[in-house]
Amino acid sequence: MQIDAVDQRIIALLVADARASYADIGSRVSLSAPAVKRRVDRLRSAGVIRGFTAVVDPAAVGWTTEAFVELFCAGRTTPAQIGAAARRHPEVVGAYTVSGEADALVHLRAADISHLEEALERLRAESFVTSSRSTIVLSRLVESPGVGPSTV
Fold first, then answer.
1. pLDDT (tens digit, 9 = 90+) per residue, 116-145?
2. 3-state secondary structure (DSSP) of residue 37
3. Residue pLDDT, tens place only, 19-29
4. pLDDT at 81
5. Is the four-CA dihedral 120, 121, 126, 132 of positive or negative sign?
6. Mean pLDDT throughout 57-83?
7. 92-97 β-sheet, strand order
8. What is the predicted pLDDT for the residue at 143?
9. Is 63 left (phi over 0), alpha (psi -120 to 50) or beta?
10. Helices 33-45 and 22-29, interaxial angle, to 10°?
11. Which pTM does this prediction carry?
């Protein structure tokens, strides 16, 4: 599927505010509301836009402690096994296979250090995890929901 500059702007506007009306987006990209809707429908049917979601501030719900955890796994652990295990833990907000020494990188969020320690211990108890290395986040410097350079 070809994505032109107008599609890129529409995507960027939706990333910035998924509740923006087609009319509002249209006024910013010089299209009518129905034309924007057709483009969004096309982007959705092609799988470019997978859905719309609310972005919740973790601090607002009391989950202010976070860490990145490198997982070192036994032998032939597959990405599917790591992903399935990560989904079992509500504190996991992201899990990735990575290059380098570790096999996976897991992003955890918790209410406090005690909760984080409990979540980490449960994650480390997964049968394939041989060891881990954790880094506690002190402050967030940059956070973007976008997919690349902003074109808004």
1. 999 999 999 999 999 999 999 999 898 876
2. helix
3. 999 999 999 99
4. 97
5. positive
6. 95
7. 92-97, 104-110, 65-73, 129-136
8. 80
9. beta
10. 100
11. 0.77
CA–CA gap between residue 85 and residue 92 (Å, rounded): 10
Phi, psi at residue 88, to the nearest 5°? -75, -10
- Among candidates 58, 68, 131, which has minimal Cα distance to 94? 68
- What is the residue whose two structure tokens read 């380098």? 100
Residue by residue, DSSP assigns 52-114 as: ------GGGGT--EEEEEEEEE-TT--HHHHHHHHHT-TTEEEEEE-SSS-SEEEEEEESSHH
Which residue, 121, 74, 72, is CA-closest to 98?
A: 72
Residue whose structure tokens are 């909760």: 115
Widest Cα–Cα separation across the chain: 56
Do 125 and 91 contact (CB within 8 A), yes or no? no
**What letter would DSSP give residue 126?**
S
Q: Which of 67, 95, 100, 101 is nearest to 79 (CA)?
A: 95
User: What tens digit of pLDDT does each residue of 88-113 get?
Assistant: 999 999 999 999 999 999 999 999 99
